[in-house]
Design a protein that fits this description.
A four-stranded antiparallel beta sheet has the order 1-4-3-2. The chain has 116 residues and is of the alpha+beta class. Helix 1 packs antiparallel against helix 2. The chain has one domain (9-114): Beta-Lactamase (2-Layer Sandwich), CATH 3.30.450. The protein contains three helices and four strands; from the N terminus they run E-H-H-E-E-E-H.
């Protein structure tokens, strides 16, 4: 199941494992009115860290969030790629077009910061 009815659009990007938690914290505290709580973020981070299978797609589920005063849902998936000792994560966040556009911009900011 790649998309779902309530959230047909997706933003996706490659992350290093250590970038996941800060990104989700930023999204939940600075972009969304209410986002993922610390327990949910830790769960996602730990599940990714503990994955040892190459090319594994992890489904984290659907989370209730609030953006600009409106209830919304986001669905989070991650594909974990392991090469040698390096672990790379492609994280996908599905939601409404408006929210996906905002999340995509935030992902691009992470990418731009890497260049420095």
């Amino acid at each position: 199941m790649v998309g779902f009815k309530e959230a047909p659009y997706a933003a996706g990007m490659n992350f290093d494992v250590e970038e996941i938690e800060p990104f989700l914290n930023h999204l939940s505290t600075s972009i969304l009115d209410t986002g993922l709580d610390q327990k949910e973020i830790k769960f996602i981070q730990e599940k990714i860290e503990n994955t040892n299978e190459h090319n594994q797609l992890i489904e984290f589920g659907i989370f209730d969030v609030t953006y600009k005063g409106k209830q919304s849902k986001i669905r989070i998936q991650a594909e974990v790629d392991i090469e040698d000792e390096d672990k790379e994560v492609v994280m996908y966040i599905y939601s409404s077009q408006e929210l996906v556009d905002i999340i995509d911009k935030e992902m691009l900011k992470v990418e731009e910061q890497r260049e420095f």
